[in-house]
UniProtKB/TrEMBL annotation:
UniProt keyword annotations, A-Z: Membrane, Transmembrane, Transmembrane helix
This protein's GO CC annotations: endomembrane system
Pfam families tied to this protein: VIT1 (PF01988)
CDD domains xrefs: Nodulin-21_like_1 (cd02432)
Lineage: Bacteria, Pseudomonadati, Pseudomonadota, Gammaproteobacteria, Moraxellales
Main subcellular location: membrane
Organism of provenance: Acinetobacter faecalis
GO biological process: intracellular manganese ion homeostasis
PANTHER family in UniProt: FE(2+)/MN(2+) TRANSPORTER PCL1
Subcellular location: Endomembrane system
Annotated TM spans: 149-169, 175-198, 210-230
Protein name as catalogued: VIT family protein
Amino acid sequence: MYYSHHQEKHLIQRAGWLRASVLGANDGIISVTSLIMGMAASGASTQTLLITCVAGLISGASSMAAGEYISVKSQVDIEEADLHTERNELEKNPDLELKELTHIYVLRGLQPDLAHEVAVQLTAHNALEAHARDEIGIHENTSANPLQAAGSSALAFSLGALFPMFAILLSPEGFVGKTVMIVGVLSLAILGAVSSYFAGTSIIRGSLRVTIWGVIAMAFASFIGSFFNVSTF
Ligand SMILES: [Zn+2]
């Protein structure tokens, strides 16, 4: 059988990794920029700010990697346990499982006879795959690799944290806090716009949303940091 093959662009396929890396980079910009601004407001020297920035990059990237690994790994464990149960059920009760699959297709809108026929053919083709996809909702797209997820979110966070780091390095003497803030706001605005563009959603809204939340975090950090400024006592 031959079909004329028509394939439209689907945003959801690239949404996963794009979302993860943009969120990681946003985190890197917001948390490290806020950290630096808090420290700058307390009157810390440029050298202290740079050390803080490196420490913030390392601790943030490690915590992103650990968090992502644990979250993806537990998802994978759940999927594997589900598949294991399903495989056992298919061996023990193939008839019940066929009925179950038929019922799923009936609920999805097929006539009972056709649903039965579809269930029989898919079971013959690959019973576990059919149950995994249509009963549990697992297919190739949904299963991620924990190490890959950990590595890419740590990388994304580090890339985000490079913005405040370069801002400190390139800032004129005495303006480090302001330079870091401006670079932080601009990079968030640009990143928000780029991610909205790729996600196919409103660029202005996406950009504003991430920028506003970033500014709130930075302002809060500066506010707290200013309590520790020795020169104001
Ligand atoms: Zn089943």
